[in-house]
Amino acid sequence: MTTVAPIRLMIVGSPRSGTTLLQTLLATRTELFTLKETHFFRHLQRRRPLRPLDRLALDPARVRHAFDYVARHNGLTVPEPLPRDLAGAVGAFDRMLSREALRRGMAGWLEKTPEHAFFVPAIRRHLPGVRFVHILRDGPDVVASLWDARQRYPESWGWLGGLDDMVRLYNRYLRVATRARGHADSFILLYNDLIERNAATLEALAAFLGLPAGGLAPESLDRVGSWRSDIVRTDEPWKIRKDEGLVDTRGGKFRSLFSPAEQQRILRRLVPTAGMVSG
User: Fold this and answer.
1) Which residues touch 131 (CB under 8 Å, ≥6 apart)?
2) 13-27 burial, b if ≥16 CB within 10 A, otherwise e?
3) C or N terminus of the chain, fewer CB within 10 Å?
4) In DSSP terms, which residues pair with 189 in a beta bridge?
5) What is the C-alpha to C-alpha distance for residues 50 and 33, in angstroms, rounded to an integer?
6) DSSP string, the chain
7) Strand partners, 109
8) pLDDT tens-digit series, residues 65-87
């Protein structure tokens, strides 16, 4: 009897770049189990400069916290005994999600945590067959949305710092997406193509995901909400929108939140995205 390996899909990209919207869309259009952001690899591994110690053994307290966090927020069971090495931890994480997908009769799992973009090499090394969708939104819109989130929810977004920190954060995510180009396990999705319902891009994404032709037809996107309660925690109000379907808000916050001088300062510091295409 042939066993079909479960689908493993991860959405990554800068915060406030449309990751929740994309997760909602793909979870609705595919037969994949999805869950709230896990932050698994950030919780699991030591912070720099201590991270090289993880090659010897993981910190047991961090391992416990990483698995407890995922289980607590998603109604899952922590695998026991907990592993002590990175390969074992990634394998246990995969099994935890794959078992839940199997229990629900789904073909695999879809996980979305923005900063997992910075852990792609390790994930790729220890989780063969995983696929990544990197969503890339224009820098000015991302910086404006980050700034707005920090002003409205400082208790959750205070870690962002100032404008220059937000620009540097976006540039880091852009560099990760640039390095992902050409990898067979990665798909770069421009936010503009998603919002504009670019038929060719959506068809290419459907093919990457193994969906049948028309699985992401442009007209189907209007029937999908911008978020779902099973992927948003109660302490994440910035993810909740009243709008249904895809709403074009590009440019609005950047022009309204920043003065002309601030706009120019941001634009000078952002790494240009010219030449980046979906695919």
Assistant:
1) 7, 8, 9, 10, 185, 186, 187, 208, 209
2) bbbbbbbbbbbbbbb
3) N
4) 135
5) 34
6) -PPPPPEEEEEE--TTSSHHHHHHHHHHHSSEEE-S---HHHHHSPPTTSGGGGGT---HHHHHHHHHHHHHHHT----SSPPSSHHHHHHHHHHHHHHHHHHTT-SEEEEE-GGGGGGHHHHHHHSTT-EEEEEE--HHHHHHHHHHHHHH-HHHHGGG-SHHHHHHHHHHHHHHHHHHTT-TTEEEEEHHHHHTT-HHHHHHHHHHHTPPTTTT-GGGGGGSBS--TTTS-TT-GGG--S-BS----TTHHHHHHS-HHHHHHHHHHSPP-TT----
7) 8, 33
8) 999 999 999 999 999 999 999 99
Sequence-distant contacts of 75-81: CB under 8 A, at least 24 apart: 76/35, 76/100
What residue has token string 């994440």? 236
pTM, two decimal places = 0.95
Backbone angles phi, psi at 131, to 5 degrees: -120, 150
The region of weakest confidence among 67-71, 106-110, 180-184, 271-275 is: 271-275
Q: Do 11 and 26 touch, CB atoms closer than 8 A?
A: yes
Contacts of 136 (CB under 8 A, 6+ apart): 13, 14, 17, 173, 174, 177, 188, 189, 190, 191, 273, 276
pLDDT in tens, 36-61: 999 999 999 988 888 888 888 999 99
